[in-house]
Amino acid sequence: MALEDRIHDYVRKLPLAFQQEVLDFIQYLLTKAEQQDRQEWSSLALAFAMRGMEDEETEYALSDLKVVFR
User: Distance (Å, rounded) from C-alpha 64 to C-alpha 61?
Assistant: First the structure.
């Protein structure tokens, strides 16, 4: 029996209130998976955008920085 079928069988045996909790938990897991996926793509995009920058010469030196107090 496939995992999906087993899950369906278990959920059908639950009282309606618990079925709603299962649905809420599934929605939570989907949101979490989407956020993780976006974070991975974001990190990948940043790494791709920054690729090769460590080899570039800088236009500024540390002495160019100044501290401004207000």
Answer: 5
Residues 6+ apart with CB under 8 A from 19: 11
Question: Would you tell me how many other CB atoms lie within 10 Å of the CB of residue 24?
Answer: 10
Cα distances from 55 to residues 2, 27, 62, in angstroms, run: 52, 44, 17
Query: What is the chain's pLDDT, residue by residue, as a tens digit (70 residues)?
Result: 899 999 999 999 999 999 999 999 999 999 999 888 777 778 777 777 877 777 777 777 877 887 777 6
Interatomic CA distance for residues 47 and 27, integer angstroms = 30
